[in-house]
Structures are given as C-alpha cells and as structure tokens.
Amino acid sequence: MHPAPSQAPARTHRTPDTRSARAALALALPSVLLVLLVVFQWGPLMELDGDISRTTHRWAVSEPEFTHVNRILTDWVWDPWTMRVLCAALAVWLVWRHRAWWLALWVAATCAVGTVVQQSLKAAVGRERPVWPDPVDSAHYAAFPSGHAMTATVVCGLLLWLLRLYGAGRALWHAAVVLAVVSVVGVGLTRVWLGVHWPSDVLGGWLLGAFMVTLAVTSYPKFMSGRSGQPYGNVRAEAEGAPEAPDGRGLEMRGSGRP
C-alpha cells in the first residue's frame, strides 16, 4: 500500500473582522497624527491651510451665485442635523422593517458617539476658524474637526454598511456609493469654499468619521456574538430575521426581512 499523500496546508484567509480591524488601525494612525500636527501648529500644514483658504475665499467673493449654492448645500442638504435625521430614519427602518433592535441601537449610538467625539475634540484643540474682512458665511465654535464633514462621513458610511449587510442590489449599491461620495466630499468642499474651515479641519472630519464607522463595523459582530455566545453568522441570522442555513451558518441578509 502506498502511503496516503499528505494534505496541503489549508490556506488562511483574512476574515472580514480582521480586515475591518486593520482598516480601523490604518485610519486611527493618520487621525492621531493630524490632531497632533494641528495642536502643535506644524508650520508646513499651517502654511498650506492658509494658502488654500485664501485662494478659495477670493473665488467665493468673486462668484456670489456659486457661493449661494454652496450655502444652500451646506446649511440644508448636508447639514449635520439633516444627516442625523437620516440616521434616525435608518434606525426606525431597522426596527420597523426587520425588528433589528440591537442593530438600530448600534447605528444610533455610533452617530451619537461621533458627535460627542467631534465636540470634545473641538473643545480640546480649540482651533480658531478663518477670519476674513469680507466673509461670505459665518460659523461658531472651534474649527477642528469639521462637524459637517465628520457627521456626513459617519452617516453615509453607516448607510453603506447597512446596504451591504442587507444585500442591496447592484444598481442600488452603486447609486448609494456615488451619492455617499458626492455628499461626503461635497460638504467638505463647501466648508472650505465658504471660508469657515481650514482644509485640515475637513480632512480631520473625514478621517475621524471613517474611523468611527470602521470601529462600529468591527465591534458590532463581537458584541452580538458575546451577547449570545454564538458565532456572528448565527447571531446575525437570528437577531436580524434572516433564515438560517441547514449547516448552522447564517445566510446573508436580504431586503426581504420580516415585515
């Protein structure tokens, strides 16, 4: 008899949790670095902020119609309170359509914690906003990080996560990605155009918002598994109303959850 051939070593694949954890770390490092550069007023960054802000302010003064459009977008369409209402609507939809109470609470808590982090950093850093002899808009409280940019990033990121979690169709997913990117990038640009934020304030909002979303996505499966003592696949199927496969693995959730 010939000896049985040795089995090839099984390939190891990075789990979604591992990828999310790596992404969270990759976002945390530049976020902390940027905070430190702003706190210690690193010369090259301050100079770059000033150059960009002075240029965009000249454009804003010379283009009043376009500036007015930017004010409408930043004050109504992409305002933080508009985004928070959208987040609340997502939470209501999760409870009403899928009975996903824990997931709804997780989404709402992520948005709330993001606001607390944002306001705490503003108070701690205490960065002054740009001051112009001929301002085209006004804003209050400290500058870093941009609340508009951070809130839009958190809410849009959570929305994309939920769409992926519930198996959104390709057309809906692509449309949502485009809308999210336009909203997050657009609101940041409006804040710089209107002269109420330095560019690094907006960059800080983007980085911190993305970090908050990645942290929420990473920690939610651990929370759900720890709450029930089951692997997250089973927990997800039971908690969000998706059917469970015969082999015990939770199926991917689709938009046809329980009414």
Automatic annotation (TrEMBL):
Residues 234-259 are annotated as: Disordered. The keyword Transmembrane helix applies. Pfam families: PAP2. CDD domains: PAP2_like_2 (cd03392). SUPFAM superfamilies: Acid phosphatase/Vanadium-dependent haloperoxidase (SSF48317). The chain crosses the membrane at residues 21-43, 81-96, 103-121, 141-163, 175-196, 202-220. Keywords: Membrane, Transmembrane, Transmembrane helix. InterPro entries: PAP2/HPO (IPR000326), PAP2/HPO_sf (IPR036938). Residues 103-217 form the Phosphatidic acid phosphatase type 2/haloperoxidase domain. The keyword Transmembrane applies. This is PAP2 superfamily protein. It comes from Streptomyces jeddahensis.
